[in-house]
Amino acid sequence: MKAVYDGGAVAITVTPPGAIELDGLRLVLPLAGPVDMVIPFSALPATLADLPPGSFTPASHDGVAWSNLKGNGSQGVLTAPGPIRFLFVGNGDRGVCVEAPASDQWPLDAAQPTAELVRDGAGQSELHLWLANRPATLEPKRPFAFTLRFLPDAAGAGRRRAGLAAWQTAPNAAQTSANLLKTPPADAFLRVEGTAGGDALSSDKTLADSCPIELFRYLAGCPAGVPAQLRTNASALVRPGMSPAADRMAVGRALLHDMGVDAGGIAHHVLLLRAVAALERFGVLRDPARAEFLPYWRSADVVRYGQPAETAGAFAADSEDPVGRVYVSAYIRPADGATRGERQALFIVVNESDKPLRELFYVHKPARVFGGPNRARALSQVARWDFSSIPADSDWNRPRLENSAVRASRGQDAGRPESQAELHDFEDDGFVAQAGAKDGFEVYGPLFLPARGYRILYGSGIPTPRK
């Protein structure tokens, strides 16, 4: 066997030393870290909208969690019998691509597995690749050649945060495609557009319908660790004043994946303006090096929207998890004026379903995102409101609205102090009341999420000052 490493990929050639009869030949590749994505590109349909959510998610049980013959086992989708020419296995942070363009010449029986993801009882995963899955005579003149490309590669590692600059137009953007393998030049961004993750189908069938989020995660360059910019086609489908769903799903997808948006594809520019203003106000754009990005595929033990529904078993209440298409990413950075490790967090809560939701928002680890309990207050948010054009004797003057805001944040609990923590809404300058806090566990809401919509919420370990 000969292996050549170029800094990101290993080109492997297996040459039999002579005529050898074998029952089969298999490569077993141990995988580091969690594996929640398997993308067999040869099995992708022409219309990605036909794929149900979770099509690229392997099963979580031990044993065979994904097979090219049975998919993830539960939905029976994306089966890819026969040779595996191109396959990605990994997660949103890293993974491995298998490239075997000549595998159709290998001794493979399409009725037998050629690729499997296998989990053991200790949380480890292995990728099993068959070079031969039937009895065959191997000869030196017919070697096996394939490439393992590890993401991120040496050039791509650490470049992802530069994608924040892609909120500005990137003239040198390189267009991504379904066989994204190599890191683009240092002065370029991946541009996610067209049928490769950028286009909505119509004003109603948004990006959430046209491209499954797991595939989008790959196309957006997340495992490759490279900066990216989304150019959607919403401006060709809707005009200002029509439903903003196509725009909000594009901006929401970008926020979830720490990537920029090309304003040319957005119809309702005010939505994009508010999103960029929220990032700037939080400090992500002016000082990206100090901001940590916690993506939705790693945030479940830190923050969560709603309680996951039981979708299997005799007593299942629903056939579909109502919050199964809600995703939460977060930006975390040191709080301004911090003296004891206090932090501030900007939560991106996106609802990709076609139903509005009203559920509680859980912060499981306030110390992780705030450096302690959240101390953002409703009155500090009210202090940002502009009362300059309202007469002092109006029912809508500052003192009366401040008192009203305190009562609203307390809800039915009139004994709650004015210093009770809230989450600030960075889009409309409102706030989300805290429902309770106990033993380092904080609950907010209920938080309303519009269908095909998102919320941008802020909390801080330091009391936000009243202006």
Report what the structure shows.
It is a single chain. With 467 residues, this protein is of the alpha+beta class. It has 3 domains: 2-167, no CATH class; 187-267, no CATH class; 281-309 and 320-466, Sandwich (Immunoglobulin-like), CATH 2.60.40.1180. Helix content is 14%, strand content 28%. The chain contains 8 helices and 25 strands. A hairpin with an 8-residue loop joins strand 19 (326-334) and strand 20. The model is unreliable at 169-184 and 312-318 (pLDDT under 50).
Task: Set out the fold topology.
Blueprint: E1 2-5, E2 9-14, E3 20-22, E4 25-31, E5 37-40, E6 63-67, E7 86-90, E8 95-99, E9 115-119, E10 125-132, E11 136-138, E12 144-151, E13 174-175, E14 190-192, H1 207-210, H2 213-219, E15 228-230, H3 234-237, H4 245-256, E16 260-261, H5 269-282, E17 292-294, E18 303-305, E19 326-334, E20 343-351, E21 357-363, H6 366-370, H7 378-382, H8 398-410, E22 422-425, E23 431-438, E24 441-449, E25 453-460
Parallel strand pairs: 13-14, 14-15, 15-16
Antiparallel strand pairs: 1-2, 2-12, 3-11, 4-10, 5-7, 6-9, 7-8, 8-12, 9-10, 17-19, 18-21, 19-20, 20-25, 21-24, 22-23, 22-25, 23-24
